[in-house]
TrEMBL record:
Transmembrane segments: none annotated. Keywords: ATP-binding, Nucleotide-binding. Residues 36-177 form the AAA+ ATPase domain. InterPro entries: AAA+_ATPase, ATPase_AAA-3, CbbQ/NirQ/NorQ/GpvN, ChlI/MoxR_AAA_lid, P-loop_NTPase. SUPFAM superfamilies: P-loop containing nucleoside triphosphate hydrolases. This is MoxR family ATPase. PANTHER family: METHANOL DEHYDROGENASE REGULATOR (PTHR42759:SF5), MOXR FAMILY PROTEIN (PTHR42759). The lineage of its organism: Bacteria, Pseudomonadati, Thermomicrobiota, Thermomicrobia, Thermomicrobiales. Coiled coil: none annotated.
C-alpha cells in the first residue's frame, strides 16, 4: 500500500509541476497536509503563485475548489452559508457557503475581523458547520489553504494563537530561481497550462492513502525524539509559549505522511528534522526580549534541533 501512496504523491507533484515550476518541495508539503487531513497557512508576498498553486492542487486531486477573498466587511455567513425563508415553497432552506468544498483558498485571511476568522475554526478542526443548532458535515478531503501578506500590515487583524494552532503547516513559496522564471515565461507564453490540467487521482483514493499513512512505523526512540523537541520549546528561555500537544501530534503524523510519500514504511530522524520548522514555527510565541533582539522562530527551532539528541540505531 505504501508504494501506492508514493505513486500517488509522485503523480500529484509532477502534475502540479506543469503549472508551478520549481516548487516540488512546496507541493510535497501540501500533499503531506492532505494526507494528514490538515490545513496550510501560506505566508508570502503577492504574485508568487499562491492562488495558482491552490487551483492546481484541487484539479490534480479531482476535487472542488472555492476561493474567499477576506475583507473587513466579510461576515461569518459569507463563509459558512445561511438559512433563508423561501417564499415560493413557504419553508426555510439552507444555502451552503463556499466552505463546502474540497480545497478552500482563504485569501488574505488576516484582513477579516476576528469574528469572521473564527467562523473557520469549527470547519478546520471538526470538519463540520453548525448553523441554527444543526451540524452539517463538510466534504472530504477538506483542505484550507490560507494566505497572508507579510509586508502589508495596515488594516489587518493578526490571527490568534488558537487559530494558528489549527494550521498543520505554515509554508513560504518564495521567488523562483532565474532559470525557473525563464521557463515560466516560455510555458505561459501562449496559454495558461492550468486550463489544460487534468486530475491524476480522486478524493476517494486520497482518503485511502491518508488512512494508509497511519500505519507507517515509528520507532519508540523516535517518538521520544519528537516529544523531546516539543518539550524543549517549552523550556527555552527565549520562548514565552512552547508547542502544544497538538503540535507534537502534528509533527508525528506529518513525519508519517512524508515517509509514505517518499516510498518508505518507516520514519527517519531526517523526516522529523525537515518538518520541524513548517510544523512548529507558527505554534510558538517568542519572549519580548527575543523579539527585541531580532530573533525569529526558525532560528530558535534550529538551535533546539541541534541540542536534542538524535536517536541512532544500535549496532
Amino acid at each position: 500500500m505504501i508504494s501506492t501512496v508514493a505513486a500517488l504523491g509522485q503523480r500529484v507533484i509532477e502534475n502540479v509541476g506543469r503549472v508551478i515550476i520549481g516548487k516540488d518541495a512546496v507541493t510535497e508539503l501540501i500533499l503531506v497536509a492532505l494526507l494528514c487531513e490538515g490545513h496550510v497557512l501560506i505566508e508570502d508576498v503577492p504574485g508568487v503563485g499562491k492562488t495558482t498553486l491552490a487551483r492546481a492542487v484541487a484539479r490534480s486531486i479531482g476535487g472542488q475548489f472555492r476561493r474567499i477573498q477576506f475583507t473587513p466587511d466579510l461576515l461569518p455567513s459569507d463563509i459558512t452559508g445561511l438559512t433563508f425563508f423561501n417564499q415560493r415553497t413557504g419553508e426555510f432552506q439552507f444555502r451552503a457557503g463556499p466552505v463546502f468544498t474540497n480545497v478552500l483558498l482563504a485569501d488574505e485571511i488576516n484582513r477579516a475581523t476576528p469574528r469572521t476568522q473564527s467562523a473557520l475554526l469549527e470547519a478546520m478542526q471538526e470538519r463540520t458547520v453548525t448553523i441554527e443548532g444543526e451540524t452539517i458535515p463538510l466534504p472530504r478531503p477538506f483542505l484550507v489553504l490560507a494566505t497572508e501578506n507579510p509586508v502589508e500590515i495596515e488594516g489587518t487583524f493578526p490571527l490568534p494563537e488558537a487559530q494558528l494552532d489549527r494550521f498543520l503547516l505554515r509554508i513560504v513559496i518564495g521567488y523562483p530561481e532565474p532559470a525557473e522564471e525563464v521557463a515560466m515565461l516560455a510555458r505561459f507564453q501562449e496559454r495558461n497550462p492550468l486550463d489544460e490540467l487534468e486530475p491524476v487521482t480522486t478524493p476517494e483514493e486520497l482518503l485511502r492513502a491518508a488512512a494508509a499513512c497511519r500505519s507507517i512505523y515509528v520507532e519508540d526512540d523516535l517518538r521520544w525524539y519528537i516529544a523531546e523537541i516539543a518539550r524543549a520549546t517549552r523550556r527555552h528561555e527565549a520562548i514565552e509559549l512552547g508547542v502544544s500537544p497538538r503540535g507534537t501530534l502534528a509533527l508525528f503524523h506529518c513525519a508519517q505522511a512524508l515517509a509514505a510519500i517518499r516510498g518508505r514504511d518507516f520514519v527517519l530522524p531526517d523526516d522529523v528534522k525537515e518538518l520541524v520548522t513548517p510544523v512548529l514555527a507558527h505554534r510558538i510565541i517568542l519572549s519580548p526580549e527575543a523579539r527585541l533582539r531580532g530573533r525569529d522562530a526558525r532560528q530558535l527551532l534550529e538551535e533546539i534541533v541541534e541540542t536534542v539528541n538524535v536517536p541512532v540505531e544500535q549496532l
